[in-house]
Amino acid sequence: MNQDFPISPTSTSPTRRLLQQDGVTATLSLLGPGDTLPENEKSTQDHVLFVIEGSANVQLDELNFLLKKDQALYVASGKSEAIRNASDSWLKLLRLDLPAREPAAAPIFTVADSSVFASDMSGR
Question: What InterPro entries does the database record attribute to this sequence (predicted)?
Answer without folding.
Answer: RmlC-like_jellyroll, RmlC_Cupin_sf
